[in-house]
Amino acid sequence: MASSTHDIIDTAVSAGTFKTLVAAVTAAGLVETLKGTGPFTVFAPSDDAFAKLPAGTVEDLVKPENKAKLTQILTLHVLAGKVMAAAVSGKTMSPSSVQGEALHVDGTNGVTVSGAKVTTADIECSNGVIHVIDSVILPKS
Fold it and tell me: Could you say which DSSP state residue 86 is in?
């Protein structure tokens, strides 16, 4: 993985397993935000996680007319502040995402975030941390 001298976006790009996420973040106009000072905690769905969505979902979401919905979904995956896996180990909590909706984080048996399993934790970046998840978290509303 990339060293902590790379920001969240550069780390995701260099990993090569977040092509869909990077394309979605670009379509939503969130690249500059996630290259900002942060710190941010990003629950990053892998390309495999996006592939689990119904056929055509991603292609539909990245259309310009769906930018608001895409932004809502993506910002649900981001917390303000840097939260490492050790901070949630053995605990459950409900932090608010930058989108405003609370996430359910359960660290009692591995770590899950609103039902998505963290498959790789603590990828440190210069402006926060990435935790890879196995599914895309969708807003409740």
Answer: G
